[in-house]
């Protein structure tokens, strides 16, 4: 069956971006039949009071204005639902994820669509998907206690049901960029297709 990749980039830099270079390498390595592109350097809107009210109105009771308010969020959820693999270029900004990525999360974490409340607590609804994070940082070590980016991304992807999350890290680039980049590029070639 044809594999579909959702390729997301969260770096604000369109040139000279390590995470864009790595995410592109991952996508090429996986060689999927179909690629859906979502570049967060073209920023998504933040959620608003109207958006929240529309989201918490049952789908069959939303008026046309509320349906319209949710249409971009519906489209982003649909991109996720169609994807077998989600590849995310994710720089560390101020010890966490870029605000552009958080805006995407706020638009795709939708009760009834990507997670559901149950007696045992919330349950992710996006089953059977894989995510690959292509991360870069200047000085923060990925996996360290001040890396709130990969820990957060892993947690929130798990929350919507994506538990298979791999991290390709070009971290601490300020120290030895050549070595960290070449290690990350090698890790891409070792990813299971
Ligand atoms: C706004 C901003 C905040 C940053 N904050 C951090 C940080 O907290 N820790 C860190 O190690 N690097 C930080 N960096 C460095 C980036 O993570 C690093 O330059 C990375 O390569 C950016 O990804 P990109 O090359 O794909 O643009 C920051 C960079 C920017 C632009």
UniProtKB/TrEMBL annotation:
Instruction: Write the record's keywords in alphabetical order, separated by commas.
Output: Flavoprotein, FMN, NAD, Oxidoreductase
Q: What is its EC number?
A: 1.6.5.-, 1.7.1.17
Q: Does the keyword Ribosomal protein apply?
A: no
All copies of domain Flavodoxin-like fold, residue ranges: 4-191
Q: Does the keyword Magnesium apply?
A: no
Q: Which PANTHER family match?
A: FMN-DEPENDENT NADH-AZOREDUCTASE 1, FMN-DEPENDENT NADH:QUINONE OXIDOREDUCTASE
State the similarity comment: Belongs to the azoreductase type 1 family.
Official protein name in the record: FMN dependent NADH:quinone oxidoreductase
């Amino acid at each position: 069956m044809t594999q579909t990749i959702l390729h997301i980039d969260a770096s604000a830099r369109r040139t000279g971006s390590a995470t864009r270079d790595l995410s592109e390498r991952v996508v090429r390595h996986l060689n999927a039949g179909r690629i859906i592109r979502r570049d967060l350097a073209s920023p998504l809107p933040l959620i608003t009071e109207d958006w929240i009210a529309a989201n918490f109105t049952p789908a069959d009771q939303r008026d046309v204005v509320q349906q319209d308010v949710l249409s971009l969020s519906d489209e982003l959820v649909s991109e996720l639902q169609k994807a077998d693999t989600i590849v995310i270029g994710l720089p560390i900004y101020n010890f966490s994820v870029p605000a552009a990525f958080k805006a995407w999360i706020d638009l795709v974490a939708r009760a009834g669509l990507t997670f559901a409340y149950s007696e045992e607590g919330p349950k992710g609804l996006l089953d059977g998907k894989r995510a690959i994070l292509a991360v870069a940082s200047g000085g923060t070590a990925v996996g360290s206690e001040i890396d709130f980016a990969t820990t957060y991304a892993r947690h929130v992807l798990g929350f919507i049901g994506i538990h298979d999350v791999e991290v390709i890290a070009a971290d601490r680039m300020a120290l030895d960029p050549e070595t960290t980049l070449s290690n990350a590029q090698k890790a891409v070639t070792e990813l299971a297709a």
